[in-house]
Design goal:
D-Maltodextrin-Binding Protein, domain 2, 3 domains, 6-stranded mixed sheet, elongated
């Protein structure tokens, strides 16, 4: 009997532990209802996902329906709600321009088609067939519906011609699709996903709409009071095991969401130079998204060596994102990270103790006998690699290295050694000195290679690629904080393929 009691007690304790862990990550049952604005044409899959989410987590989703443009107006006026789902990219861009939304999570894809009754009794094959005598067709109002907005943009100069000939202009895509099912009109221009939701309709594809594909996206309203909860449901809507099949079952094409996790873990490898600017931002991002963010700061040489070893180890998880100290340390892992976005740059400078008692001004001064010089390790860090390249390019490598008494993985260590008086000079990043500028003097290095540009890259095979992309967007939205930390901003530049990164000549073969 005692043995049975012990087993039952052990099971109870085990169940309690499992329950405790689940409660730490699952949405709170006390979480208030999420208010989600949803276009009428996307009602079915979102309703299905909302009900599944309620059953799984006990969180009620309050859905408000209307045309995309009408919902945008509602958010703008009411300044309330949590998620705004939009059916086209143009509306998302408008909302961003107005400051109405923040994060954007693609859920599905759709494109315009001509909806006709089964069997296509009017033999409508082309866009111009709608203009034939005796053909009645309907359009959605671009002032309220995304399909109208997209059609107006796609038809460009022909829009007014079609609008003038339309029998009716209605506020939502479902309104005009219903008109075709009832025989009130012979055709309507709707989304392909809309046609799939009506058994009595069929779609006519026309060349004019082949490149007019749009994303259905869940966006977080700027005034949302519970962003972590809103983003959790948005991830659920996009996840291939959760909401995505509901969209596919209603005629949409998947947009490629991250695999579902109540609380995902994102892993970021970052060069040490970025730490002063991003450390607090990373915490804010993790709190807002409701995720765990693991960050490893180190010299980029060490980080790249670690990642290359991971790539050769079966089952090893490559970091979801990599934020290097300079673009020259992206090519070593270009196979893992296929695209990089430069966010900032900083100068490489000569730092000396306050007052510059050794009268050091240029690189050649570091070759004087008796000096104590600090540099970063060329195998471990970007800065060390770039420093060695500059010294070799100027013919100073051997003479300066005779005075080097400290080689470390990151420049912040050199700054500390300067402050304690154990070094006369060090080659560091400008941003390393900014927080202690009253204790250290700096001199510019006149060399083309004395600038480091910091690129951010998302792993090609990351299971959290969408989440990592939102981290990049979050960093881009905080330009002033990078500039306050001493960086120069380059975050508005287009991303580049890592295979196309050109390393300056003086940085090549420096170990020869």
């Amino acid at each position: 009997m005692k043995q049975v009691i012990a087993i039952v007690a052990a099971l109870a304790i085990g169940l309690g532990i499992v329950t405790w862990f689940y409660r730490q990550s699952a949405p709170s049952r006390a979480e208030r209802a999420l208010i989600v604005y949803c276009p009428a044409g996307i009602k079915k899959p979102v309703e299905m996902a909302a009900e599944a989410y309620r059953k799984e987590f006990g969180v009620t989703i309050s859905l408000q329906y209307g045309g995309t443009s009408a919902l945008l107006s509602a958010v703008r006026i009411a300044k309330s709600g949590d998620l705004l789902i939009m059916a086209d990219d143009g509306s998302v861009a408008d909302a961003q321009r107005l400051g109405l939304i923040r994060e954007v999570i693609p859920l599905a894809k759709q494109r315009p088609v001509i909806a006709v009754a089964k069997g296509n009794p009017k033999s409508i094959r082309t866009l111009d067939d709608l203009l034939r005598e005796g053909v009645r067709f309907a359009l959605a109002n671009p002032e309220s519906a995304s399909i109208g907005h997209t059609l107006q943009r796609t038809l460009a100069g022909r829009w007014e011609q079609f609008r003038a000939r339309a029998m009716v202009l209605k506020p939502t895509v479902m309104d005009i699709a219903s008109d075709v099912t009832l025989g009130a009109v012979d055709a309507a221009i709707v989304w392909d996903a809309t046609v799939a939701q009506f058994a009595v309709l069929e779609a006519v594809n026309v060349p004019e709409f082949e490149k007019a594909e749009e994303n259905v996206s869940a966006t977080v309203v700027s005034t949302c009071a519970q962003p972590a909860a809103a983003l959790r449901f948005a991830r659920y809507l996009a996840a291939p095991e959760k909401g995505a099949p509901m969209f596919v079952g209603n005629g949409f094409r998947p947009a490629g969401g991250d695999p579902w996790s109540v609380k995902p873990t994102l892993v970021l490898y970052s060069g040490g130079v970025n730490r002063p600017a991003i450390q607090q931002m990373l915490k804010e991002f993790a709190d807002r998204e409701g995720v765990d963010l693991t960050t490893v700061f180190n010299g980029c040489g060490i980080l790249c060596a670690t990642m290359r070893a991971m790539a050769k180890t079966p089952g090893a998880n490559i970091p979801d994102a990599y934020y290097a100290c300079d673009v020259c340390f992206v090519p070593p892992v270009a196979g893992l990270y296929q695209e990089a976005s430069v966010l900032t740059e900083t100068d490489i400078i000569l730092a000396v103790t306050k007052g510059n008692p050794k009268d050091l001004h240029v690189l050649s001064d570091l070759a004087r006998p008796g000096l104590k010089i600090g540099i970063c390790n060329a195998q471990q860090s970007t800065l060390g690699y770039m420093t060695q390249a500059m010294l070799k390019d100027t013919g100073l490598f051997d003479s300066v290295m005779k005075n080097v008494c400290s080689q470390v993985p990151t420049a912040d260590m050199l700054v500390n050694q300067l402050r304690t008086g154990s070094l006369d000079a060090a080659i560091v990043y400008g941003v390393n000195v900014k927080p202690v500028a009253e204790h250290i003097d700096t001199m510019p290095i006149k060399h083309a290679g004395a600038i480091a540009a910091q690129p951010f890259a998302v792993a090609a095979k990351s299971p959290n690629a969408r989440l990592a992309g939102r981290l990049l967007a979050f960093l881009r939205a905080n330009r002033e904080r990078f500039e306050k930390a001493g960086f120069r901003w380059r975050g508005d530049e287009a991303a580049v393929a890592t295979k196309d990164i050109v390393v300056p000549a003086h940085l090549k073969n420096i170990h020869d």
